[in-house]
Amino acid sequence: MKFIYPEFLVALLLIGIPILIHFLHFKRYKTVYFSQVNFLKTVKEESRKKNNLKQLLILLCRILTVAALVFVFSQPYFPTNKEAKNLAKKLVAIYVDNSFSMKQEGDQGILLEQAKSRAMEIAQSYGPATRFLLIDNQQQPESRQILSQSQLISKLGSIHESPVQLALSKIHQSLYNRLQQEGAKAEKNIYLISDFQSYATDLNAFIKDTSIYTYLIPLTGQSTNNLLIDSCWFETPGHKKNREEILSVRIQNQSNQSYQNVPVRLKINDTIKAINNLSIEPEATEEIQLTYKNNQAGIHRGIVELDDYPIVYDNHYYFSYTVQSKNRVLAISQPNDLTNSKLEALFKADENIDFETIAVNKIQVSQFKNYQCIYLLNLENLSSGLIGSLKQFVEQGGSLAVFPGINSQLSSYNQLFAGLNAGRLVAADSTQLRMETVNYNHSLFDKVFLHEKQDLELPQVSYSFRTNTNSRSLETSLVEFNNRQSAVSEFHAGLGRLYQFNFPLDDEKTNFTQQAIFVPLIYNIALNSFAPQDIQYEIKNDLVLNLSFNEAQRPTNTQTLLLDNGKQQFRIPVINRLNNQLRIDPGQAIQQAGFYDLYSNEHQLRTLAFNFSREESRSSTQDAQQLNQVLSSLNNPTITIIEGSDSDFVQQLLIANEGTQLWKMFLFLALFFLAMEVLISRFWEIIVKR
């Protein structure tokens, strides 16, 4: 047994007080001789013995009460992990949570500053020979260095807020591995100082090892109202010039108060494009829409913002995208087939479409990546190489429109359709059919017709293909025949789309090209063919970007790219490249939300938008009581909680370091002995008579 305050043991001298009182109150009897008192001697001697026993028991109780009280103030304890305590070498790992949630005010100031203060107190509670590890959410390489006490205290001053929040199990794993590398013959402890965000607190995943003890130090912030922009997205995947854009914005109210008429602003290239007033109830989520037009081609930088205090990092949401000046479209047909002339006449001199035609025997499949849309017109057979290239083209975001021909080998088409999980062509049908139903709600027909016209003249066909679609296919019927068979269907595959026309593009078999539906359907397929764009990325430690480029944008064979946010420039290594796909690793270069221009040899490739994670804004924290409830279900004796906000933190720290507390037991004993003294004093006669 050891003592936290051994100096209080001097108070054991107070035991002399009850002893002194005992002797001062001891009664000396005077002998008086009588002639015949022999019969009283026996009674007298018996009473004296009982009285002496009573006085001795009271004295003993008083001595034990004083001693127990002295032990209470001396804070006795039994050391834990005795084997480790006997080791001279000590290794201590400290994690300071520096995520955005640690910017909140606590009862003793900003949580991050309080965390750094606690880390300093931990370091000072150990001897000068102790060696330390100090890490935060940044996980910088220098965090693996072993530090002295003075070096750790100095390094604490360089810890600043970070947009990154790591899972605690990952932090614990990192510290555990590093401590184990330093050798087995050392006392090892881990301290985690945090507000313990619920989404990052995964205590069940901690490593259980009795050679390393873990101490959780929770810090609790004051309740703060917060209105945040959770996310933004576009209703349609692509962007084109002079087209109306609809941006959806999800906003969350993380407070118990309502907000009325809060202005939500949209800026595109530093110009306010839309404003929408928001009213939202407590703890609610609302979605609003902001509408505007792209007036020009090129890179567009967008910001959605609102005003809310004191938490401001989630008041802005950045996004970026590129509006292409033209979509490149390719039509593939049989040699000497004039079918493509219908499409050529449609797209000729169109400012939004760059149209090309090619015979099937002259195609170069390696060039498919430079187009956004491909039309297959009445091809008789699809080679295996062509099928594989078309499948890859669609899965990477291209649009493919297919018209099977009268003389087509259906097996080769079905091989393509199977690869894209589309409908299978069963057989040709020479029955006279009429297109009857049009899906006017589809984006291809958006604002094409003023209303759904019942008297709209639709095409007729005398040659079509019956299809069979499996239940796993993502099919959307665009136009149906009067026999309820699909005439035109859309299938999603990977990042792209397949448009399956179940009739040939042949004027002898259909009047499709002569009807009003031909132009909007064929034209909008080409116009709405867009390469997929990620409008924003979330800042995190393990961020890896997969970027797609067309032929004109493709960077040269450089090993690094340049990121520039207007204030700083970063060289980003290229991990690998495949065709027009580029994989880059920004590492921890991205620490601020905003726009970053990506360059290759001074040529700007695109602008990337980065946002802080909203997890910290949405998540709740866990206090000591909640953590204790979790620990009770885990049965992990190597984890202990120390109240980080208590004024006696240092005393708790010493107790946790040294072992099991005994002061409560001695307090109970002091009360017990005091009660025994009272009982003996008041009920001794009753006890003796029995």
Automatic annotation (TrEMBL):
Sequence ranges assigned to domain Aerotolerance regulator N-terminal in this UniProt record: 1-76
Membrane spanning stretches: 6-26, 56-78, 662-684
Signal peptide positions on this chain: none
InterPro entries: Aerotolerance_reg_N, Class_I_gatase-like, Double_TM_dom, Ig-like_fold
SUPFAM superfamilies: Class I glutamine amidotransferase-like
Swiss-Prot/TrEMBL keywords: Membrane, Transmembrane, Transmembrane helix
NCBIfam families registered for this protein in UniProt: two_anch
Protein name, UniProt field: Putative membrane protein (TIGR02226 family)
Phylogenetic lineage: Bacteria, Pseudomonadati, Bacteroidota, Bacteroidia, Marinilabiliales
